[in-house]
Amino acid sequence: MLPLPVAAPGAPGKPWWWPAIPVLMCSMLLAALVASASAAHGTPFGGDEALHRWVLEHRPRWAVGLAVAITVTGSGVPAYLLAMLAGAMTVRTRRWRGTLAGALALVSVQLPRIALASWLARPRPSADDWAWSADGYAMPSGHTTTSAAVAVLLTAAVHRAVRGRARRPLLVVPALWAAAVGVSRFYLGMHWPTDVLAGWLLTALWAGLLGMFLILLRRRKSGAVPSNEGENT
Question: What is the pTM for the complete model shown?
Answer without folding.
Answer: 0.84
